[in-house]
Amino acid sequence: THQWRGIIEEYRDRLPVSDTTPVVTLREGGTPLVPAQVLSERTGCEVHLKVEGANPTGSFKDRGMTMAITKAKEEGAKAVICASTGNTSASAAAYAVRAGMVSAVLVPQGKIALGKMGQALVHGAKILQVDGNFDDCLDLARALSDNYPVALVNSVNPVRIEGQKTAAFEIVDMLGDAPDIHVLPVGNAGNITAYWKGYTEYAADGVSRRTPRMWGFQASGSAPIVRGEVVKDPSTIATAIRIGNPASWQFALAARDESGGLIDEVTDREILRAYRLLAAQEGVFVEPASAASVAGLLKAAEQGKVDPGQKIVCTVTGNGLKDPDWAVAGAPQPVTVPVDAATAAERLGLA
Ligand code: F0G
């Protein structure tokens, strides 16, 4: 009888809702904070994973989407639109179903993971594949919402940030205070903005005594914030963060500078190494973009930037099932055996 009620009910007093707001929820949030044994050993720190792939549609986007769709409903919207590298569209499509709304999604042609496309399809979204990248999709989504009766639910909509800040609340509620360092992947830069807002709100109200240093990591081929300039043709295997002109760029810089943090890059090779480590040694299956946080932590540790004894939280943003191609790629094909215990035992190395 006592299940988690979703982020709006759990944090109602810290979100822009009233008693009459029609809450649209799939009971998102309340995600596991999992101690990371191998990462803790490697860094000499106490490392935790905030496993956002455990949200209803398999990514952190649900925290923002419950707010965005709830407010759209409150304002009487009949249709919502978003640009997406896949997770936002999956979430928008699902929450639109709950709200009885039409969803339209714009995705970069050929550059979104199959699982995410499947989600948008099965939830009945109207999907357009755009001949361009995410940044082009976002320009188009803004133009459509400016000129047609459709509400924009990308993270440029400030209520998305309000919803996503609740992940920081959950971490402080679990640990009793903010960690020393919070690490996360950066794409459009909404999430780093949201976490920083959550941590600073809790600290300002005395719920926590401190705020963490915010460490964000972009993929090397899509690292405009690190380079200090727009990347025209971003590339990375981590399609979720294949973004060359992040909408919340300035907020990400503010989070970095106000927290004494950093924004750096990790290569696709480093991302895949962290992806495999998380699955094979921590038991946590994430999508490649999510592994950018852990890849960044490991890189920083190798560079001697991580003093031992600290409390560190890495957000792993999306479920590995979204993009299983990378789990299968390069792995040996399972052998086929007859229905015979002796043969099976021999092949399993038991005999
Ligand atoms: N990790 C995953 C799995 C994502 O899907 C995203 C963003 C990020 C990290 C980066 O978060 O954009 O707030 O800096 N995905 C967006 C989408 C762009 O359309 O699903 P950010």
UniProtKB/TrEMBL annotation:
Its cofactor is pyridoxal 5'-phosphate. Keywords: Amino-acid biosynthesis, Lyase, Pyridoxal phosphate, Threonine biosynthesis. Pathway: Amino-acid biosynthesis; L-threonine biosynthesis; L-threonine from L-aspartate: step 5/5. Signal peptide: none annotated. Residues 24-318 form the Tryptophan synthase beta chain-like PALP domain. GO terms for molecular function: threonine synthase activity. CDD domains: Thr-synth_1. It comes from the Bacteria. Its EC number is 4.2.3.1. It catalyses: O-phospho-L-homoserine + H2O = L-threonine + phosphate. Belongs to the threonine synthase family. Catalyzes the gamma-elimination of phosphate from L-phosphohomoserine and the beta-addition of water to produce L-threonine. PANTHER family: L-THREONINE DEHYDRATASE CATABOLIC TDCB, THREONINE DEHYDRATASE, MITOCHONDRIAL-RELATED. This is Threonine synthase. It comes from Streptomyces cinnabarinus. The lineage of its organism: Bacteria, Bacillati, Actinomycetota, Actinomycetes, Kitasatosporales. The gene is thrC.
